[in-house]
Amino acid sequence: METTLLPIALGLVMLGLGLSLTTADFARVAHPPKGGGHRAGLLIRRWRPAFADRMDKPVRIGSAVILVLVIAGAVIENIEILRENFAALAGITILFCVLSLTIGYFVPRMFSVTEGESIEIAFEVGIHNATLAIVVAQSVLLSTEMSLPAATYGVLMFFIAAGFGLLIKRRAACDAQTTVAA
């Protein structure tokens, strides 16, 4: 699984991210994206925008399925070691997930990125960390044990991201009520 599927999984995730981006999205940052999938997605968007629009949702769904499969594979492959170390890994992975989502949301807001785009960035950062970390641990470092924190993150991240989504949704509803009242 490590040497074949993980790089393909990461490539599909990165392609999905790139399909929704335009070069104008990077005008607020100092350098262009470096990921190959992002570049491929940007090129598809530039040369075939209608195709990119049609493929955006299926590729995102495919990316989510692959994300779940990668995390499940890492968990299944290391279930005993994970059971032994889950308590030690849980606290730091929860903290990292919360920080990833928070930074992924507030940093774009500081640069006047829209609310919706900031939420999307927060989820992209918060969710794709698990896949990237598992890919690096298993295919670059060649260590399934090193993928355990990422697998723990991947399992816990779904619950934390759901909570984060609810908080942001409530915040947006409160902001909307305040605007209507004013």
Walk me through the structure:
With 182 residues, the chain is mainly α. The chain has one domain (5-181). Helix content is 81%, strand content 0%. It has 6 helices and no strands. It has helices at 5-19, 36-47, 49-77, 79-110, 115-140, 148-181. The longest helix is centred in the last third of the chain and has 34 residues, at 148-181. The termini are far apart. The model is unreliable at 28-35 (pLDDT under 50).
Question: What's a quick, concise take on this entry?
Answer:
By secondary structure, the protein is mainly α. About 80% of the residues lie in helices and about 0% in strands. Helix 1 (about 5-20) crosses helix 2 (about 35-45).
Keywords:
mainly alpha
Order of helices and strands: HHHHHH
Rg measurement, Å? 18 Å
Mean pLDDT across every amino acid position: 75
Overall, the morphology is flat
How many β strands by DSSP? 0
pLDDT < 50 stretches: 28-35
* Total discrete domains: 1
Taking the alpha carbons of the first and last residues, their distance comes to: 56 Å
Helix content: over 70%
Please describe the biggest sheet, giving its number of strands, its sense, and whether it closes into a barrel. none
Protein structure class: mainly alpha
Beta-strand residue percentage: under 5%
Helix count, per DSSP?
6
